[in-house]
């Protein structure tokens, strides 16, 4: 799916940038944090302790709708349990990710993401917005991972590919179920949220990207950044953060709050597009990942969005005299283009002055 027809084209790396922003360091050989990866300690300063953390929602709970609405309004994030995705699949994707990131660097570079593309091995795209580099590496997949998996393991890519494909199938089902709950919690029906109706070129398919993240053991975590603060551009992101902590979410007037790993749970992030549809009522979650000195951390993010050329705009049901319309219509493609230039300010560029 690496063509101009998909959203992948919108978050391609600017071809003129330094390859340092694509090719990760050979982390295993580094005993001291290099200057290139040394952030000021104020940027990496750790989280605050809070009494009540990110809400956890058991999908079988009769109160799930109310809990989800409250969590999205207050945190832009919650964790889900009892979601139906087999634990075995979660263990398998963790295993396959570790297998991939454990390869020697020269082998991983066989599948490096090219500047024009969105899939393959490399540093997270947002690294181009920062002068310091991240203590992390990633592998992005859209649809079939076959092309890059063959480059890594010419004869032994079957298990990897099967797990990635199965995981994407399961996560698409779960994401759509959670999206339905989120809309229902605001009394919105399918008709109220037009983003899945026919797109201009007749394609009705939602778009999704699977991102495997690896945060190697770090010699000086107090000065390193795994993934800098950002919001996801998606409608919704489902993150499996294994059992090693590192994810933090920002709360206004509170600070950075740790998202405690819960065995077998998914973290659900409200993305920018959901924030637009809800006219700001559900908050897009500002989050980041820090690293540690003892454990290699893996996380798996599934970004889900609408067909690329469908207009996304605030639902009129959530607009009234007290809640004026905040955003103008935008397609996911246009928004990703804007995000690739304006990064965390992209929402401001489509906001009406109120
Ligand atoms: C579908 C997408 C979401 C994403 C941009 C992209 O087109 C492809 C990569 C995704 C990712 C993964 C790491 C974090 C993130 C912020 C980034 O830079 O690239 C997200 C993007 C996003 O949500 O904007
Ligand atoms: O690794 C994590 O906990 C966060 C990953 C993330 O935010 C992302 O991939 O967008
Ligand atoms: Fe994210």
Automatic annotation (TrEMBL):
InterPro entries: DIOX_N, IPNS-like_FE2OG_OXY, IPNS-like_sf, Iron_ascorbate_oxido_reductase, Oxoglu/Fe-dep_dioxygenase_dom. Pathway: Plant hormone biosynthesis; gibberellin biosynthesis; Hormone biosynthesis. Transmembrane segments: none annotated. The keyword Repressor does not apply. GO terms for molecular function: gibberellin 3-beta-dioxygenase activity; metal ion binding. GO terms for biological process: gibberellin biosynthetic process. Its cofactor is L-ascorbate. Residues 204-306 form the Fe2OG dioxygenase domain. Keywords: Dioxygenase, Iron, Metal-binding, Oxidoreductase. It holds the Pfam family DIOX_N. It comes from the Eukaryota. Belongs to the iron/ascorbate-dependent oxidoreductase family. GA3OX subfamily. This is gibberellin 3beta-dioxygenase.
């Amino acid at each position: 799916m690496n063509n101009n027809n998909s959203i992948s084209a919108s978050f391609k790396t600017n071809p003129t940038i330094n390859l340092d922003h694509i090719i990760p360091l050979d982390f295993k050989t580094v005993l001291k944090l290099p200057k290139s990866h040394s952030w000021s300690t104020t940027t990496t300063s750790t989280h605050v302790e809070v009494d009540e953390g990110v809400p956890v929602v058991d999908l079988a709970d009769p109160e799930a709708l109310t809990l989800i609405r409250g969590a999205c309004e207050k945190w832009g994030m919650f964790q889900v349990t009892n979601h139906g995705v087999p634990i075995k699949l979660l263990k398998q994707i963790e295993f396959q990710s570790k297998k991939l990131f454990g390869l020697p660097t020269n082998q991983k570079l066989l599948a490096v993401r090219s500047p024009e593309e969105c899939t393959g091995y490399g540093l997270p795209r947002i690294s181009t917005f920062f002068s310091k580099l991240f203590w992390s590496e990633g592998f992005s997949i859209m649809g079939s991972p076959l092309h890059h998996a063959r480059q890594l393991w010419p004869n032994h890519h079957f298990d990897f590919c099967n797990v990635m494909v199965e995981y994407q199938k399961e996560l698409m089902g779960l994401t759509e179920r959670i999206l339905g709950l989120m809309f229902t919690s605001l009394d919105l029906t399918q008709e109220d949220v037009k983003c899945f109706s026919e797109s201009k070129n007749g394609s009705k398919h939602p778009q999704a990207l699977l991102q495997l993240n690896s945060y190697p053991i770090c010699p000086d975590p107090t000065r390193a950044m795994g993934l800098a603060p950002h919001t996801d551009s998606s409608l919704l992101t489902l993150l499996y953060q294994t059992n090693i902590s590192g994810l933090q979410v920002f709360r206004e007037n509170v600070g950075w709050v740790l998202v405690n790993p819960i065995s077998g749970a998914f973290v659900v992030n409200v993305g920018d597009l959901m924030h637009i549809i809800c006219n700001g009522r559900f908050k897009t979650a500002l989050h980041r990942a820090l690293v540690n000195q003892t454990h290699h951390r893996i996380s798996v993010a599934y970004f889900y969005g609408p067909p690329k050329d469908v207009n996304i705009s605030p639902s009129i049901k959530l607009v009234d005299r007290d809640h004026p319309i905040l955003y103008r219509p935008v397609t996911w493609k246009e928004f990703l283009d804007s995000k690739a230039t304006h990064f965390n300010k992209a929402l401001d560029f489509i906001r009406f002055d109120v």
